[in-house]
Design goal:
Layout: H1 5-10, E1 15-19, E2 23-29, E3 32-35, H2 43-68, H3 100-117, H4 119-126, H5 133-163
Antiparallel strand pairs: 1-2, 2-3
Length: 170
């Protein structure tokens, strides 16, 4: 259905609906006049969520049913019933102190891993053929040097931590 341009330009309200064989609603936004929200566009996502939940619940139910029917082997032994902690035998109190080294290594991994994620969008945008030529002309060199400074700061942090002995396992 074609809407005359003067009808759209004259309209000053929030939404505009034309009734015909099919309902067409237009909404004025900052980007112009657009089609209104339609819940039917999200049906595939809802169907996917329903299937996902059904699979998770079905898996749990099937596990319990096989256990109750005796189809799943279950032979408890003393070794199988022992608590298991990351390959270590659970000896001693559960209140023992952990070395801060465990947490430090985990935090360092997260810091370096997440900071390297900042390089991916830059690499994709800077060296793809789909990049806007104006952007490439203006920003490619400046962004390249910003990334070099970013990598240099990562390297300085890595060397500092190495010299402090953070990566030595005692």
């Amino acid at each position: 259905m074609s809407i005359p341009r003067h009808v759209v330009e004259v309209f000053l309200g929030k939404s505009l609906c034309f009734f015909s064989l099919s309902l067409l609603c237009l909404v004025r936004t900052s980007a112009g006049v657009e089609a209104a929200f339609d819940l039917a566009d999200y049906y595939p996502i809802f169907i996917f969520l329903i299937l996902l939940i059904a699979f998770a619940v079905g898996t749990l139910v099937a596990s319990q049913v096989t256990y109750l029917l005796g189809l799943k082997p279950y032979k408890p032994t003393e070794v199988k019933l022992m608590p298991y902690e990351s390959g270590m035998d659970p000896v001693g109190s559960a209140r023992m102190q952990f070395d801060v080294k465990f947490y430090l290594i985990a935090i360092l991994f997260l810091v370096f891993d997440l900071e390297l994620l900042f390089l991916y969008p830059w690499a994709v945008l800077a060296y793809s053929d789909a990049a806007d030529p104006k952007w490439v002309e203006v920003f490619r060199r400046m962004v390249f040097w910003e990334i070099i400074v970013f990598i240099a700061l990562l390297t300085i942090g890595f060397v500092y931590e190495w010299r402090k002995g953070v990566f030595r396992w005692r």
